[in-house]
Amino acid sequence: PFNEILDKVIQLLNTLRGKDLIRKWQYEQMMPDRTTCEVAHLYFNPKTHKDRIPVRPIESTIHAAATKISKFLDKILRPVFDVKCKDTTIIDGASLITELSKYNKRGLLKSTTLFCTFDIRNLYTMLPQEETLDILMTFFHAHGYRKVKGISMDTIKKLASIILKNNVFVYGKKIYKQTTGGAMGSSLTLTLTNIFMAKWQKILSKNKPRQVTFMDGKYIDDIFMTWNRSEEELRKLLDDVNTWHPNIKLDYKISNSLPFLDVQLTNNNGILSTCVYHKPSAEPYVTPFTSDHPRHVFSNIIKTSIERAIRYSSTFEAFNYERRYIKLMLLYNGEKFFTHFTYEKRFKTCKRDMHQVYHDTFKDTPAMYTKLIVGNRIRRHTYNELIRKRPNKNLLQNTTIIKKQRPWSHTGHDLEQVQQLYSLCEQSLLNYCAHRNEQQTNDVNTSSLSPINLLVVTLWYLKHYHTERYIATEFNLAQRTVGYSLSSVLDILHSCVYPEFISLPADLSNRTTPHGPEEYHKLIVDSTFIAIPQPEDSTKRKTYYHAKSPTNYALKVQMTCDFSHRIVHVSEFYRGSVHDITILRESGLLEHLNDSVQVIADKGYIGEEYVVTPRKKHHGRELDEEDKDFNRTINSARAAIENINQRLKTYAILGDVYRGDIDDHQKVTKIAQFVSALCNINLNKHPIRK
């Protein structure tokens, strides 16, 4: 599934960029690198501070396909959440003490006030995906956001959705897809969790009993609240809360003295007491002073520990106790003495005696400040299960999908058509490859493609309009090499293929060919456009403006076909604001028209002698039945060119937003003319329905 997911990510980013929904720098920041991408893998961290030591599942998504999108969205969305929810968010123990002090000053902390803490079981992995995305949209809309960093909320939802719904990981020798929740290890998951919990916290506040005032604050999935009514009512409320959502279940504790984060909070008959809290499983270890860390690291450890003790301790007694703890912790992290009975089998039955001897020998000496460790070897099964995190590389490495399938299967043409094209330009491609190889003789690391593969990759590029960066990573090529090769091969294909398949018959007036409503109706003409991004220059915005383009700016080209649905003429490209009749007059097509050869066109071409267009109604008058029948006949005949224009746009380079130089009209013209030749090649096997 890795290639499938990576292609989805790249295709989404290309589509968003093509429609100008994300900016170039945003596109580059989110685009994954195929050469370094890997499937995520699962490992576990034990929660040693909890009963029966459960484990926390963590996905290593450092090289996953959607990691860059996750980091980017987290970078732009989290600051908004931090600002809008700062009043109900607990940052650390100090901020909780500050809020409780305000609560106390308002006279709400009474001798009967209870403290309650609860956390959500496995919240990260139990988040309902669709509901979370809807809550994300609701949150930003409620705060007046329609865009964040220039990106619309609909686009943000699409990007967040591809992160949540395409989360695949390796565990053991199998690959799994996560269907509920987000990856614990993905940057965006934390922000989505915070926003989900903010909504849940609001619902809790709305459902509290009337005339009940309490303080609540949230630190991710841990919530602290005060309660001024009976414990039974609080338990009933929390038990009801457990039934609100099938995925959200909470574990709670109620008392007048509870820890939250790293602070112990106690209600002593209406007086708030606080001190530093250390989890029972916490080991008093910090960076050893004998390590090679910079000196400021050690001073900062002492400074931070003392400052926390001062801020958290409500009494001198509590501060003095914490000061002694800090001193012992620092002494603990001096010289260490290790004895391991694995290497001395005779000590195996003497562990307790060794500790007693050590204590009796070094009592009241500096040696007591060192640490004696006596233990056994790590259990190999547990090591493999929890600590050995990275699976075999064969499960994580990418296998290019193009190598497994027929190379022409993604070009829109079958093998016979590809061989036909190759036969037309074989010698030119061979000459180009020979010249390229001469230039690359000094670079032993340069990868290159064979002539037939150059043709196939170019057809693939025209059909799907992948970025040069994507093609480079797909085929292990340098990006500059891809750009140069595509440009050179397009020139070769245009010169060899276009004249063979696109031309106006010299004896068109004398030939018996399919025609329109009248025998002299030989051709149909119409213009089509390629959407382009909004130009930065205001003058260019005026000249490239085109109302029908999804971006409001475009390049225009004129197509001419016969009644066999074969394209016979393609004009040069013009700026979007140029009128259709102007393109016709400058295209040279009028020189081939006469009484026996006339073209059918829409009302944009009114004004030329041999151009048949629908009749316009005069001001204040309706068309009579004869005029209406004539218009229906002309419009029905014009359906052929409309179908051809739609087929041209199945090639993404013409159907998507053009990313090249909009002023290089010669290059765009060559692309459109060659794609028109490809459409003519396809007519035999895939005719347009008449």
Automatic annotation (TrEMBL):
<dbReference type="GO" id="GO:0046872">
    <property type="term" value="F:metal ion binding"/>
</dbReference>
<dbReference type="InterPro" id="IPR000477">
    <property type="entry name" value="RT_dom"/>
</dbReference>
<dbReference type="Pfam" id="PF13359">
    <property type="entry name" value="DDE_Tnp_4"/>
</dbReference>
<feature type="domain" description="Reverse transcriptase">
    <location>
        <begin position="26"/>
        <end position="273"/>
    </location>
</feature>
<protein>
    <recommendedName>
        <fullName>Reverse transcriptase domain-containing protein</fullName>
    </recommendedName>
</protein>
<keyword id="KW-0479">Metal-binding</keyword>
<dbReference type="InterPro" id="IPR027806">
    <property type="entry name" value="HARBI1_dom"/>
</dbReference>
<dbReference type="InterPro" id="IPR058912">
    <property type="entry name" value="HTH_animal"/>
</dbReference>
<dbReference type="Pfam" id="PF26215">
    <property type="entry name" value="HTH_animal"/>
</dbReference>
